[in-house]
């Protein structure tokens, strides 16, 4: 019968068609995925983990709530990042590190990117509502509004204090994770919020130093552009000290033991020592790269110790 004679050819044709379509589909998925700023996204999700595990030591672990707050927060943060890409197209065009974003090159238009953001946001908030509590929902929605509007659309473009505003949203995920397990705002909730809030200043100010020319060209009034690198290095030191001080609130109020205190304290002192080096270095740009890399080690170690600290001596 003709069916047996033509099926191999049809199979080959189908396979060739699939191979022709697949690269286009994968590249489209990759472009949309890139709009979520994966580096920012997963860093924030890591702090959500830490906040939840810290609170779960005292309030119990619930898989449904844990998955809900992690996935829901991830979707809300991704939504905010996508919308930020849409709003920042004019700035991103002028900066080397952002000039290849899909919203800048035109690979993804403003309308489909906005729709993508809305879908992510609605799904994320719906999941938080279904699985967590009103404090978590308020934290997630508040963080979204602060990041997209108060930071991205307003203060980032208008004030040297834009980073402080953005740091509020950056500290929201760890707070949301804690509130998901605890259901209440207490001293530990304040401590984890302050730690991540203060950590972001040295981290971003270091970027502001080695990306100073790009920010100046884009007209973004970051501290290194408005007040110079010398003032920036001093503020990096101040905020590094504030970070270390806030990281000691958890042991001070009995939420973690001496293991957390020793590990976090020693790393914090090393970070302060590196910040002091910036005041007398002859190559502030090279130093700022080291400061940024150190900030990545600090936040990773902090998340680990916040997660396991309550369970260790």
UniProtKB/TrEMBL annotation:
GO molecular-function term, one example from the UniProt record: protoheme IX farnesyltransferase activity
UniProt enzyme class: transferase
Compartmental location: Cell membrane; Membrane
EC number: 2.5.1.141
Membrane topology: Multi-pass membrane protein
Pfam families: UbiA
Keyword entries, A-Z: Cell membrane, Heme biosynthesis, Membrane, Transferase, Transmembrane, Transmembrane helix
The keyword Nucleus belongs to this UniProt entry's keyword annotation: no
Catalysed reaction, written as an equation: heme b + (2E,6E)-farnesyl diphosphate + H2O = Fe(II)-heme o + diphosphate
Cited InterPro entries: Protohaem_IX_farnesylTrfase (IPR006369), UbiA_prenyltransferase (IPR000537), UbiA_prenylTrfase_CS (IPR030470), UbiA_sf (IPR044878)
Transmembrane parts of this sequence: 40-59, 65-87, 107-129, 135-154, 161-181, 187-208, 236-254, 260-279, 291-312
Pathway: Porphyrin-containing compound metabolism; heme O biosynthesis; heme O from protoheme: step 1/1
Function: Converts heme B (protoheme IX) to heme O by substitution of the vinyl group on carbon 2 of heme B porphyrin ring with a hydroxyethyl farnesyl side group.
Sequence similarity: Belongs to the UbiA prenyltransferase family. Protoheme IX farnesyltransferase subfamily.
More about this protein: Carbon 2 of the heme B porphyrin ring is defined according to the Fischer nomenclature.
Protein name: Protoheme IX farnesyltransferase
Top-level taxonomy: Bacteria, Bacillati, Actinomycetota, Actinomycetes, Micrococcales
């Amino acid at each position: 019968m003709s069916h047996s004679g033509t099926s191999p050819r049809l199979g080959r044709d189908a396979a060739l068609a699939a191979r022709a379509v697949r690269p286009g589909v994968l590249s489209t998925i990759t472009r949309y995925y890139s709009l979520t700023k994966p580096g920012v996204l997963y860093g924030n999700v890591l702090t959500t983990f830490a906040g939840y595990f810290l609170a779960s030591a005292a309030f119990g672990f619930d898989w449904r709530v844990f998955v809900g707050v992690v996935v829901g927060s991830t979707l809300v943060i991704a939504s905010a990042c996508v919308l930020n890409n849409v709003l920042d197209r004019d700035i991103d065009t002028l900066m080397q590190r952002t000039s290849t974003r899909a919203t800048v090159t035109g690979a993804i238009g403003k309308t489909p990117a906005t729709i993508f953001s809305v879908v992510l946001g609605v799904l994320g908030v719906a999941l938080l509502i279904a699985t967590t509590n009103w404090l978590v929902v308020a934290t997630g929605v508040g963080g979204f509004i602060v990041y997209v509007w108060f930071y991205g659309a307003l203060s980032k473009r208008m004030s040297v204090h834009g980073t402080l505003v953005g740091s509020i949203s950056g500290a929201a995920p760890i707070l949301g994770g804690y509130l998901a397990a605890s259901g209440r705002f207490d001293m530990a909730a304040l401590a984890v919020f302050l730690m991540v809030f203060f950590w972001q200043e040295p981290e971003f100010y270091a970027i502001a130093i080695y990306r100073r020319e790009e920010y100046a060209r884009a007209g973004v009034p970051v501290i290194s552009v408005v007040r110079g690198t010398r003032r920036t290095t001093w503020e990096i030191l101040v905020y590094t000290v504030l970070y270390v001080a806030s990281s000691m609130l958890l042991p001070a109020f009995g939420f973690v033991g001496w293991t957390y205190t020793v590990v976090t304290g020693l790393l914090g002192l090393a970070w302060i020592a590196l910040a002091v080096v910036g005041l007398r270095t002859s190559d502030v740009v090279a130093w700022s790269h080291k400061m940024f890399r150190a900030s990545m080690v600090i936040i990773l170690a902090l998340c680990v110790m916040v997660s396991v600290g309550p369970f260790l001596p």
